């Protein structure tokens, strides 16, 4: 009797990556490790120091909300899959197997799963991490399917965690659960592999939507330019284009128009902390108009509490259009009023999206910003060295 777990496991065990797949894996490793190293002094990373390697590294990779995103599944693939694979001693192929499973499970879960309040990164992430760690350990297809089933109890997480420490911790728990499940499967633990099918239906997924065709990661991955929720990448980049033409002190009104679905994770309308600001459309408008570069400094508690930022947030009028499937649905439109002048901007795809992939120079600028203050360089981060780099820095 076939099952989703068996189908995915068979695909993962037989995966032969293309050159393009391997290039994407290398980019994802560089981006993820750099973002994790940038988080080395975050209080939560220190708090989580007693967790397993996979969990600790995943927390670090996600706590800044600067990690990549798979648009079709709305999942932060690399923050889960890179740590799980590295903790098990895996390589690019193991990562691609995990990422491929996560992208397909997340897509089968669908947008309705996300809009219902689930944190798709963690629901799809635990079984995917099991595959990545399992491939790294050399498990065959049957054992990989068992590992996925053993990870099902940990395949949870909700969006009410957004803006709190629990969000990156959930990601860490998913990575840890996957690695644990892979080692249990390798040791001979048994499970009913159809548990994955049952779980998928219970959380609102569509088993028929699991598509094993195409590249390892269908649709590719979006790289973040700003260290915040992906739903803010488009608004910030669009409004930042207007910033050179606007004196923020003269702004009297900010009107934002976007499809309703694109703001699903933006649950903090009056943020008081940097974490909350990463999920605030109102603050996105403020930092875009105030700051010349919306980097780490824009998402501190102090930056969010600036009087000028508070004033601009109060001026934001958000008008939501009907529907909107996924975070880049439709177009984002903005009007910025200053006295008698009105400046307008529209945007479809932000920089770093699969439709506007980052150039090598853009990626290296981000990586070098993340590695600032270390002796580490981008050229030293490879699949054979990344695990030790994370041990040394976290």
TrEMBL record:
Residue span(s) of domain MmgE/PrpD C-terminal: 226-373
Domain MmgE/PrpD N-terminal residue range list: 58-195
InterPro entries named in the record: MmgE/PrpD_sf, MmgE/PrpD_sf_1, MmgE/PrpD_sf_2, MmgE_PrpD, MmgE_PrpD_C, MmgE_PrpD_N
GO MF, any single term: lyase activity
Pfam families, per database record: MmgE_PrpD_C, MmgE_PrpD_N
Domain of life of the native organism: Bacteria
Family the UniProt entry places it in: Belongs to the PrpD family.
Name of protein: 2-methylcitrate dehydratase PrpD
The species this protein was found in: Streptosporangium subroseum
């Amino acid at each position: 009797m076939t099952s989703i777990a068996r189908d995915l496991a068979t695909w993962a065990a037989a995966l032969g990556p293309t050159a393009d797949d391997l290039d994407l894996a290398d980019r994802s490793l560089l981006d993820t490790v750099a973002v994790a190293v940038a988080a080395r002094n975050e209080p939560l990373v220190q708090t989580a120091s007693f967790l397993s390697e996979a969990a600790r590294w995943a927390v670090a990779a996600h706590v800044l909300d600067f990690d990549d995103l798979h648009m079709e599944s709305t999942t932060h693939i690399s923050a889960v899959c890179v740590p799980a694979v590295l903790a098990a001693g895996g390589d690019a192929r193991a990562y691609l197997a995990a990422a491929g499973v996560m992208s397909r499970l997340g897509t089968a879960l669908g947008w309705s799963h996300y809009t219902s309040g689930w944190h798709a990164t963690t629901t799809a992430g635990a079984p995917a991490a099991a595959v990545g760690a399992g491939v790294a350990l050399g498990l065959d297809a049957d054992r990989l399917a068992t590992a996925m089933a053993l990870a099902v109890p940990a395949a949870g997480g909700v969006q009410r965690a957004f803006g709190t420490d629990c969000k990156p911790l959930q990601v860490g728990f998913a990575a840890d659960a996957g690695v644990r499940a892979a080692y249990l499967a390798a040791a001979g633990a048994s499970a009913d592999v159809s548990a994955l099918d049952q779980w998928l239906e219970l959380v609102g997924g569509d088993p028929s939507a699991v598509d094993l065709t195409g590249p390892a990661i269908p649709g590719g991955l979006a790289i973040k330019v700003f260290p915040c929720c992906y739903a803010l990448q488009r608004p910030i980049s669009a409004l930042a284009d207007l910033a050179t033409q606007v004196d923020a002190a003269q702004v009297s009104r900010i009107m934002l128009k976007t499809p309703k679905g694109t703001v699903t994770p933006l649950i903090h309308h009056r943020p008081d902390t940097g974490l909350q600001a990463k999920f605030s459309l109102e603050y996105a408008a403020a930092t875009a108009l105030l700051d010349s570069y919306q980097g780490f400094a824009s998402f501190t508690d102090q930056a969010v509490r600036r009087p000028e930022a508070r004033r601009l947030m109060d001026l934001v009028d958000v008008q939501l259009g009907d529907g909107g499937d996924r975070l880049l649905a439709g177009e984002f439109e903005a009007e910025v009023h200053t006295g008698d002048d009105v400046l307008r901007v529209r945007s479809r795809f932000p920089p770093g999206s699969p439709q506007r992939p980052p150039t090598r120079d853009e990626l290296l600028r981000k990586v070098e910003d993340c590695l600032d203050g270390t002796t580490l360089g981008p050229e030293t981060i490879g699949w054979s060295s990344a695990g030790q780099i994370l041990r040394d820095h976290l």
